[in-house]
Amino acid sequence: MAGHRIFEKLSTLSTSSSFCDHQHQIVKRNIQNILTLQNSGNKGMQYATLDEVTAAINKMKNGKSPDELNLMSEHLKCGGQIVPIILKALFDRVLQERDVPEIFQSGIITPIHKSHGKPLQDPNSYRRITVCSIMGKVFETIHMSKISPDLDRLQNKLQRGFTKRVSPTNAALLLTEALADAKDRKKKVFVAFIDASKAFDVVWHDSLMLKLFQSGVKDEDWFVVYKWYQQMRSKVKWDGHFSRAFDEQQGVRQGGILSTLYNILKSKQIWASVLERHIAHQHAQMILY
Fold it and tell me: In angstroms, rounded to a whole number, what is the distance separating the alpha carbons of residues 74 and 15?
């Protein structure tokens, strides 16, 4: 399975000529300061109610690939009343001990061909989709519901992608109307579509954790996410065979619930930069979505 090496390489932390070593040191130092300030786990803290666990289980989609333990959402849904009780006890323990089970951090990468005429023999023609632990996804769903209010209040109102109850179609309508208006008035209009190459795959974990903390997620809620990303491991599945497991030192998983953190936090940073430079949607000849 030589093809797995490209995914392993993408998961290996690396720097480039454009990488600022000074900024790197600042972020590392800030993370260490945050860790120093964290108190020990609260032994009496409960992570979730039985109703919250049950609701999270019911949110899981059916018919998906089994995880590393060959478990699917159907197993949890049809397992009876004991399943939420056991998962609640497990989740409470995770929060109290501030430690994440290895199986939650383990994933199976399935390469999905991007089509559009891309060569089948080229590993770069494949998108990595990670099948995560179904128990871990239930945990992630509950955790996201707890920290989402801190993130939602910071999200720019112009952000359309990866936002609940908001459709990117609204942005498409604004764009097409702007183009139609420019055409009617015989005005020039410039539209830029930007797609960052392998954006999910090369996210720097420490930077993501610092942005999460600065967004208002603190204490156990922050520490659990930090621990989750510290020891993630994956293996590649191809034609029924598995590669050796490797550490995921960078990147966020396409397929993981917590991966939406990256989209929320990164979009917030981009919009802040755009508006700071006075490049906004109200400008006559430029629209940015």
Answer: 42
Cβ density class 39-53: b for 16+ within 10 Å, e for less:
eebeeeeebbeeebb
Question: Whole domain around residue 270: which residue ranges?
Answer: 44-277
Helix runs in 130-167, H state only: 134-152
Answer whether residue 24 is part of any domain. no
Q: Which of 52, 60, 48, 51 is nearest to 90 (CA)?
A: 48
Is 29 part of any domain?
no
Q: Which of 43, 78, 28, 37 is nearest to 57 (CA)?
A: 78
Does residue 19 belong to any structural domain of this protein?
no
Model confidence band, residue 286 (pLDDT cutoffs 50, 70, 90): very low
Tell me whether residue 186 is in a domain.
Answer: yes
- Residues 11/249, Cβ–Cβ less than 8 Å: yes
Whole-prediction pTM: 0.78
